[in-house]
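Honest question from a wet-lab person: if I give you the sequences of every part of a complex, can you actually get the arrangement of the whole thing, not just the pieces? Trying it with mine:
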Amino acid sequence: MWHWLNQKFLAPKSFYANSAKLIPWIALAFALCFSYGLFAGLFIAPADYQQGDGFRIIYVHVPSAFTAMAIYFSMAVFAVFTLVFRVKVAAIGMSCSAKIGAWFTFLALITGSIWGKPMWGTWWIWDARLTSVLILLFLYFGFIALQSVIPNQQTRDRAGALMAIVGVINLPIIHYSVIWWNTLHQGPTLSKFAKPSIAPAMLYPLLAMIAAFLLFYALTLLLRMRNQILLREINSQWVAELIHE
Amino acid sequence: MNNFSMGGYGYYVWSAYFITLFVFGINLFPIFFEKIKIKKIIREHLLKKRL
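Yes, you can. This is the full assembly:
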């Protein structure tokens, strides 16, 4: 079973071929979700009764924060596959995710800061949620730095995998920071979906934007992974054949 | 939403959305240039191997 799975989907050559089929569908789903989320978030959703139109930053801030955390979680999953099952594409997926994750964390911090200025009266505060997300950004930077200083590919993958697994402890800290500590940041937005405290007209664009951000991550991850696969498999016959085509 | 000024919050809202588009762009477009570069590296590598 494992051998079949590895040969059919996880071997670099088959992953490269299968990802080419997936990419157009992911791009299409992203375009649909993003255009709906963007239009409905900006023009259809009603203004918030307290924050007015300023609340519309939620449609880029919450999805970017959610995606930043989801990317780190996916890195930890890739890390387990790298360390336990020695899957080559998992190691590639892990290292390709780090840069995308760092950008989304940066985006979450910047859009949060832009939202914070008119609502809280300050660009930044050493609040538990903001600080724990900043730590996530440093974890991404640490991972990228670690990968760039180790010359040996195998050691680099293993060290990166260990760091990704250790750093995952920060994710529950980010999520529960607003519950454990007295913070200026509002409570967890996503868990509120269970008991709708947000009007459907505001909720659906948010869900569409979250889906769009996750699809964007999947799209850029596959594109980056395909590049890295070619580079790592430079001595393989199939890469030579592919280049000559 | 009444107009693009967004009740005085336009500066903040549009900035957040434009920064988001910038981050999307910076994540997506360099990948295609990277692919061209990688293919060039592989071609040179294969040429060296033949020689």
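Two things worth pointing out. Residues 16-41+53-236 of chain A form one domain. The interface with chain B takes residues 38, 42-43, 47, 51-54, 56-57, 60-61, 64, 99-100, 103-104, 106-107, 110-111, 114-115, 117-118, 216, 219-220, 223-224, 226-227, 230-231, 234, 239-240, 243 of chain A (CB under 8 Å).
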